From TrEMBL:
Domain ABC transmembrane type-1: 1-277
Alphabetical UniProt keywords: ATP-binding, Membrane, Nucleotide-binding, Transmembrane, Transmembrane helix
Gene name of this polypeptide: msbA
Keyword Repeat: no
Function as written in the Swiss-Prot or TrEMBL entry: Part of an ABC transporter complex. Transmembrane domains (TMD) form a pore in the inner membrane and the ATP-binding domain (NBD) is responsible for energy generation.
Protein name: ABC type multidrug transport system
GO cellular component: plasma membrane
Membrane topology: Multi-pass membrane protein
CDD domains in the cross-refs: ABC_6TM_MsbA_like (cd18552)
Length: 553
């Protein structure tokens, strides 16, 4: 970097012997020495430049790569509550568009800024060496030039932020459209989606146009300012040479230095706009990195060996948004090894209870214990390893069936995986697929039917083999034959485990040891099926309605 800077200054300085020794004193030896020196100087300069460029570019990419994975790791551990605030497209955009804005700028800055600044300093030194008074005039232009640059820089940062937001909206549109492509098609909303996407891209385009003005301004501005300085110096320096206060060589060397200065100066001002873009992206990124999770696996917490798996909810109050209570004094005790069913109308908070137990959210007040241990005092991974969940919305990856089941236990053998699939009544449909366990199932398992997806999710939970089992509408998508098969498998699985089931099909919870009816954020009724029927209240009403609808007797 310094070599490159010094060689540039040397090139300018060489103008002095060219003029003074060759043109005026007609020294023949210098006629050979100076050109040879020019070539050697350029080779050194080229070598140094190459080494510096490649090293700095590599360094720049490494810095940005590290940031990217840091952000990813940070987000994956962030609070569920925070993550729910952002559409996934927004987060994707931060990890891609924003990072790429930084990738370009960091590498530009590292390769350009430092070198150009060094070169600038080298040239300024040379100018002072040649003529102090002229140099003072030339240096005066720098602050004059920098003021408008700073102004433009600020403007650029604002526009860059808006562009990043615009790109993020576009990613959100892309993400949503292609996630819900069947819906888009069945509602014939292609044109509507195109117009929505166009609105976003038009906005981004108008911002890019604005940024084109801002980005293009510094260079011509610098050009004008530099020529004013050069004109002035030709007038002033020329009169010094005429008065023989300065040799023509010194004067030309000075002018060359000044002209060469223009390039790094221009680059530095251009880098400023690039820097503003990076700063704006970095700001968006660090605003996420600054969000510290409130629920995390604290390594200082000792591991706890649970004596039993009794689960207790103590006076839980919880709301997702302030002012809208979901749980309001919820109390529940679940005896180890038993099955408790949660019943209640849609949106009453059943899934929320399961989320609180896994500490995806923490209650506002009240506490939950497992084996007598407050779950907030447990290592997060210890808690979650004890729990296997089949969630209401089945989450599958665009991988093979084998890998999707293996997610429940990464070190599982092939036999264990097949065993889990058999238990979940999934094995038969899997082996009938052309590629069996190696079938790729598409994003979120789109290449499978709803019931098949559900059985994979059950197999995954079976493989995890945890003492606490949470089944949230686990069999809702199955036909009655498959449901019977899976139900039998689940009954086997439930043996000896503490289980919480949620099901709208009351037939699948009748056999639960206890049934808990939730209403108004708390437990309204609690008891066995028979007890609640004889109580003849909410549950009995649900049950009779269900019987009428399904024609059950
Ligand atoms: N992430 C969230 N942010 C804000 N509100 C939420 C969120 N998740 C759920 N809710 C609200 O909390 C309430 C309880 O939701 P929950 O999913 O626990 O209901 P549920 O009893 O499982 O219903 P269902 O039987 O339909 O599955 C609902 O009224 C819902 O609107
Ligand atoms: Mg639910």
């Amino acid at each position: 970097m310094f070599v490159a800077a010094i060689t540039t200054a040397i090139n300018a300085w060489l103008m002095q012997p060219v003029l003074d020794s060759i043109f005026f004193n007609k020294e023949l030896t210098m006629l050979y020495i100076v050109p040879t020196f020019v070539v050697i100087n350029s080779i050194v300069k080229g070598g140094a430049h190459f080494y510096q460029l490649s090293t700095m570019k590599k360094l720049g990419q490494k810095i940005v790569n590290d940031l990217q994975i840091r952000l990813y790791s940070h987000l994956i551990y962030a609070d569920t509550k925070l993550l729910m605030e952002y559409p996934s497209g927004n987060l994707i955009s931060r990890m891609t568009n924003d990072i790429n804005a930084m990738r370009k700028s960091v590498s530009d800055l590292l390769t350009g800024a430092v070198q150009e600044l060094c070169t600038l300093i080298g040239l300024v030194f040379l100018m002072f060496y040649q003529s102090k008074s002229l140099a003072l005039i030339a240096v005066f232009i720098i602050p004059v030039a920098f003021y408008p640059m700073l102004k433009l820089g600020h403007k650029m940062r604002r526009v860059a932020r808006k562009i990043q937001e615009g790109l993020s909206s576009f990613t959100v549109r892309l993400d949503e459209t292609f996630q819900h492509i069947s819906l888009v098609k069945s509602y014939c909303r292609e044109e509507y989606e195109i117009s929505r996407a166009k609105k976003v891209t038009d906005n981004v385009l108008s911002l890019y146009k604005k940024s084109a003005y801002i980005e293009s301004a510094p260079s011509p501005m610098m050009e004008v300012l530099s020529s004013v300085a050069i004109a002035f110096i030709i007038w002033y320096g020329g009169s010094e040479v005429i008065d023989s206060k300065m040799s023509p060589g010194e004067f030309f060397s000075f002018i060359t230095a000044l002209i060469v200065t223009y390039k790094p100066l221009k680059s530095v001002t251009q880098l400023n706009t690039s820097l503003q873009e990076a700063l704006s992206a970095a700001k968006r990124m660090f605003s996420l990195l600054d969000e510290k999770p409130t629920i995390f696996d604290d390594p200082r917490t000792p591991h706890s060996a649970l004596k039993n798996f009794n689960i207790e909810f103590h006076d839980i109050h919880f709301s997702y948004k302030t002012g809208l209570k979901i749980l309001d004094g919820f109390n529940l005790r679940i005896q180890e090894g038993t099955t408790v069913a949660l019943v209640g109308s849609s949106g009453v908070g059943k899934t929320t209870v399961l989320q609180l137990l896994q500490r995806l959210y923490d209650p506002e007040s009240g506490y939950i214990t497992i084996g007598g241990q407050n779950i907030t005092k447990m290592r997060l991974n210890d808690l979650r390893n004890e729990i296997a969940l089949v969630s209401q919305e089945i989450a599958l990856f665009d991988e093979t069936i084998m890998d999707n089941i293996r997610y429940g236990k990464l070190e599982a053998t092939q036999e264990e995986i097949v065993e889990a699939a058999v238990a979940a009544a999934a094995h038969d449909f899997i082996i009938n697929l052309p590629e069996g366990y190696n079938t790729l199932i598409g994003q979120r398992g789109v290449k499978l039917s709803g019931g098949q997806r559900q059985r994979l999710a059950i197999a995954r939970a079976m493989l995890k083999n945890s003492p606490v089992l949470l089944l949230d509408e686990a069999t809702s998508a199955l036909d009655s034959i498959a449901e019977k098969q899976v139900q039998e498998a689940l009954d086997r699985l439930k043996k000896g485990r503490t289980t919480i089931v949620i099901a709208h099909r009351l037939s699948s919870i009748e056999g639960a040891d206890m049934i808990c009816v939730i209403a108004n954020g708390r437990v309204a009724e609690y008891g066995s099926h028979q007890e609640l029927i004889s109580l003849n209240r909410e549950y009995c009403k649900f049950y009779n309605q269900y019987k009428n609808i399904t024609g059950m007797n």
